[in-house]
Fold these 2 entries.
Entry 1:
Amino acid sequence: MRVRDWQDVLADVTETNAEPDGWRAVAGDRSNGIGEDLYLGHPAVGVYHLKTYAKNPYEVRGKGTRVARRLDDDLDSFFPEKTGGRFAVREPAPDEDTAKSRAKRLEEVVKTHADAPTTPDALFDDAMDVLESPAFGPMAYEFDGRPDALDGLAEQFEESEELLTEELEDLVERDDVNKGFQ
């Protein structure tokens, strides 16, 4: 298991050729200490586990790793179906012309959804398509708690849970943050 910076792990997610809307996520507070746990899963790609914390209001730090090469039936039950909250991983537009084109198309999508009967999920999916998000989908998330699925995934991946916890705690200690922003 290779532990890396959380942004490098997300770069792996964005570089997969997997269907962008096939991703699902579970996130919430860490079971011990500051920060959050995040699991991202896709049937064709596998499962990634990230542990992050806010060093200050402008900087997120963390570690992550790939914990499974595929999202099998045993793991699938921990990830939400097409209900609940939504998440997306996005990349910036490579240049100004692309950014302007995406903004124009996004404006058209919003107008179309404003004029027609639609659902929030349909608007979200269309917006992610226009923005060319490489990964998006349903998410189970508790802002001030921990979904039961996080504990289930932690039990499934005890080794990564322990290793990433140690790595994140070392990072927090090196950053000398403890329980407050630096």
Entry 2:
Amino acid sequence: MLGFEQITKPMSLRDGLAHALRTARRAKGVSQEALDTVSSRTYVSALERGLKNPTIEKLDEIASAIDMHPLALLTFAYVRSGKHASVSTLLKEIEEQVQLLIENEESLSSPKATPSLKK
């Protein structure tokens, strides 16, 4: 259900990501110890308590280990933070922004668009 954001108290992004990691891991029935191929139990525990922030690579590894896309975890964290009204509006905004990036990717990487680094 996409309405969870209306019945929960907003939290910081760090706490939202911590909550997302813990919720996803438990929902998938994965113990912290079972993630030992990607991270120590101590590190996972610190992430889930909001004491540490993972790198994008570490988030991807942990998400893969619990069979969850890292963007699902981040989306949950952003909605829980109160920065977006709902999952559907956030995903629509993301889709539009990614499309803009795709459309402008080539024009920005052409030699004409790259400023000269002459001294």
